[in-house]
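hey can u run this one w/ fe (ii) ion bound, need the structure tokens asap thx
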Amino acid sequence: MSRLTIYRDNAPETALLDTENPREIAETLRPLNVRFERWQAPVTPAKDAPPEQILEAYRPYLDGLMGETGAGSADVVRFDRNTPQIAAMREKYLSEHTHSEDEVRFFVHGQGAFVLHVGDKVYSVLCVQGDLISVPEGTPHWFDAGLNPDVVALRVFTDTTGWIAEYTGDEIARRFPVTIPDIAA
Ligand SMILES: [Fe+2]
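ok here u go:
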């Protein structure tokens, strides 16, 4: 289940809100300019489907989103625990950072948590299969897919030079451990 948990940034032990209702998640995140949507393809592509097939399955949603945001490119990323350098990758995403463009991800398979730090609040958004999230440019955040990741995701972007992060140097992510439910088969 998708899930949003909100904390004050100095109190990781007390949730101010904890919801698994996708509509409530979307409405709570909207004022932060965070887009959260559920996308449904007529047929969910297989985990090992070629990228073109995955892009095609979500084409109407992608076209709509790209038309609205002006983003020009989309691709498919996959990683699991056998991905080379996966531990180093995880560390990279786990430190609070920002980007100079929106970070837009759609979960075709698997799950991961985007944790946003806005003002004095922390918004932990657990995204699962069928969830789209867009983290606005300049918004401090981190990401975790857990110790046993198994993710196929779409990326939608304008800057084709790749994933570039500006680290804030804040160690806050260490104080907000993310729990990724174990759904490994
Ligand atoms: Fe990021």
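The longest helix spans residues 59-69. anyway lmk if its weird
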